[in-house]
Write a structure and sequence with these properties.
single chain, alpha+beta, Tick-borne Encephalitis virus Glycoprotein, domain 1, 4-stranded antiparallel sheet, 2 helices, about 25% helix
Length: about 140
Amino acid sequence: MRPLSMRFLLIASSCLVVIGLGLYASNQAGVHEWLRSFGKKGHAPDEIVVRQRSAVDLPGFDGAVRLKVGDIKRGRRAEIEAIGAGQVVLAANPSAAVGDRITFEHAGLRYELHVLKYEDDIGSGDCATFRLDRIVNENARP
């Protein structure tokens, strides 16, 4: 009786492994994203996350202003650009470090991008986290 139950257990385990490998092969990106989510804390709602060598529309500008992040070098510095309509560079910092603030103006209002952190994601690439603030009174800013 025991050898039969061991064979059944071995066959069942093998079937689960084969099914798992089949599911992984058909949806690798989804599995990788799901695995990356473990151990990571979420971002605050007012934070903007941009992968290196890419650009995103800044929230609240209806696509009129984009944030572009170049290569993040050793998790310490990156080229950051705020780009307006017609690819006009509103502000740039060729070597922005964590804690730097990049100020730009759009539609008569002043804004500030605060570099919060750089993260090293081995599988998906490095990314940068920012917070966008509107400067209401420049004298009141810390």
